[in-house]
Every structure is written in structure tokens, then in C-alpha cells.
Amino acid sequence: MKWLAHPWLTIRVQIALGVIFVAAAINLARGNAIDCGCFNVSAANKTTEERLADMRWDILRDLGMLLMVGQLWWTSHQLKDDDVARASDRPATVS
Asked: What's the pTM?
């Protein structure tokens, strides 16, 4: 499971989530109720106000996912820093 915290993977996921987050936020600010059907196809019968409310929840969900991926990225960097610090604390061995 170490590959899940790989820095390049987390950076790519953060970029993808960031683009989705920004696009949804811009459309919400403009009052455009977008619904691609990616997560729920039952929005066909909803009013514009209901779809805008759903978009607010979607933005909060995306922000939560973005924060979780950011935490994975931060943890992966902390682990690398701790490994370097532990390696420098070890006494040199003579063969």
C-alpha cells in the first residue's frame, strides 16, 4: 500500500480534484446548475435551486477529498524526512 502515498500520484490526484473543484465553484458562483450525472442520475426531475444546493454539497465533498489527498502527500513527505533523520542519527559501522 506504499504506492498510495507516492508523491507523484498524490500530486496528480490533487490537480484533478482541484480542477473539478474550481470548475464547480465557478459554475456555482455564476448560478449555473450543472449536472453531468457522474454520481447521481436522479437529478433530471429536480429544480434549478435543488441542483444548486446539490452542487454546494458536491463542492464540500470535493474539498474533503482534496484535503485527504493533501494529507497523504504531507504524510509521504514527513516519512521521507523522518527516514533521513533516522539514518543520520545512526552511528557509522566499521567493517
From this structure: 0.60
